[in-house]
Amino acid sequence: KFVKREELKEILTELFNYMKEHFNNEEQYMQEIHYPYLNEHKIMHKNIIRDMSYLIQNIKTTNDLKEKLYTIMSEWLLEHILHHDVMIGKWIKAHNKNTKEEETKQEELTEDSQEKLEFIYSCPCKTTHALSYNEHLDILYHNKNLKCKNCQQTLFYFKNPI
């Protein structure tokens, strides 16, 4: 079935409104639990909303829409939800101490959560570098530059966490 441009805009506007509401609720929750990466998370949300808004305002063709929507949704679903939102759950598990009995379990959870989620970076000499979540966020949101010890060149993001 052929879908008119205006119908697409209406559907995307509904999705856009849902995303804004979801992000707002998530940010309120992160603030309540004192999540340490709240500011970085807000920037991620702001970037996704900005991209989605631009997409809605600038739909020209169905193919153009498909391509741009795929990029935004894969960034939101794959990168954001599967990696960054999952970190909220890991942080909660590592910091949720209720009873003495729970503390023993908590020590195990903390050890598990310390297994590093690695973000793969590379450099011109093709060395791969496994960076922690903190290092990854520092590069993305705090303008930190890390250099390869071999070639002394700036690292660039290569691959999602393993």
Automatic annotation (TrEMBL):
Organism in which the protein naturally occurs: Campylobacter jejuni
InterPro entries the record matches: Haemerythrin_Fe_BS, Hemerythrin, Hemerythrin-like, Hemerythrin-like_sf, Hemerythrin_metal-bd
Keywords, sorted A to Z: Iron, Metal-binding, Oxygen transport, Transport
Gene3D superfamilies: Hemerythrin-like
A UniProt-annotated Pfam family: Hemerythrin
Family annotation (PROSITE patterns): HEMERYTHRINS
Chain coiled-coil ranges: none
GO MF, any single term: oxygen carrier activity
Protein name, UniProt field: Hemerythrin family non-heme iron protein
Family stated for the protein in its record: Belongs to the hemerythrin family.
Signal peptide (from-to): none
Residues passing through the membrane, by range: none
All residue ranges annotated as the Hemerythrin-like domain in the record: 5-85
